[in-house]
Amino acid sequence: MGREELQTRRLDAVRAWTTFVELGDAAESLVRPEIMQSWQLSQAAITPDVVEAPLSDEGDTAAYWRATPLQTAVERVESDLKRTAEDGDLVIAVTDPQTRILWTYGGRVMRRKAETVNFVPGGRWDEASVGTNALAISMRTGDPSMVFSAEHYASMVHNWVCWAAPVHDPVTGDQIGVIDLSTTWDRTHPIGLATARVMARLIESAMPRSRDWPGSRLGSIAPDEPGLTLSLLGSAEAWLDGERLLLNRRQTEVLALLTMHPEGLSLEQLHALVYGDQPVTLSTLKAEVSHLRSALGGQLASRPYRLTMPTRVDVDEVLAHLRRGEVRAAVAAYAGDLLPGTEAPALMELAEYLAVSVREALLAQPDPTAVLRYTELAPYDDQVIENCLAWLGEREHPAKALLKGRLAAGRRG
Fold this sequence. Notes:
The N and C termini lie far apart (57 Å). By secondary structure, the protein is of the alpha+beta class.
């Protein structure tokens, strides 16, 4: 993109921003939907004349950084990150899930600019703190994001362009932060967003396994069966022929939908199941499928899209137990909500169906051991506990006291 074209784009962004600040939603047709949504969120929290990001406690930030596997991952690929920053005169930042910056490195010019607005460790770059920016949008949506010039809500960064991509825990699939690349608007480059994605994958590939860290929720070992093993309940985890797959949230959603439709899906069908009526292009979905096909070693056919290897999914195990009336086994296999936070309509519907099915099975067959396990996932579902205690009546059961304790604790809360 030539300088004249960039200048025109910048002027258009300034006009749109000015229109929004003065007239609000009258600017809706002038910017991308994700920018308008972010501006609206920002306007409800701050004014556009903020001059710097608020800073979190330095000691708390440093302690969090030392305790997170992100530090190990960044250290392992630090030379690549620094070289990218220096070659492009960028400032690179890695954040926590609250969009608090944990680590930065910048080229000579951008490092000075970043320091003036607290784009430094401890800086809070969520929308409520500093308004629209790529880090905040990517953290909130789980998708890569670009924010150019006056698309930023705060005028202090109208001279910037930022590209951000989510970073996921390779074991749980949880989004644990974002990586952002920022420079001045006149250095905008079409591969900026792709570079952010590559840097995110680089960090994910260098991440230590979460189970090796204190407080890890998972203790499973790699499945040794051939084919695909997919866990969607509670947290996302995928294995292919015993090897862990490093997938982002959207790719995991696509993979989940393909396992549920072994007959295959057309591009349009898959788009509807993943995005619903969101204004997302088919080419965006094609790119995700392309990355997924590569991760699967080519075992994803097209026209229609379908998986070409054996698959096992934890959702199927829960449903199979429920169909056979094996409530205790179903609850044992039910590790929590399906892909918490997903916005894919088909997966939201399945998550609701599964959660209601497990709950109704417990109400109909109140096995105390199963109910006790269920309370770990839904501690405030008093009805399930009360129903089980009523079913027990005066009978003794090892779980009875624990259920009463859980009920009392929930009511005090």
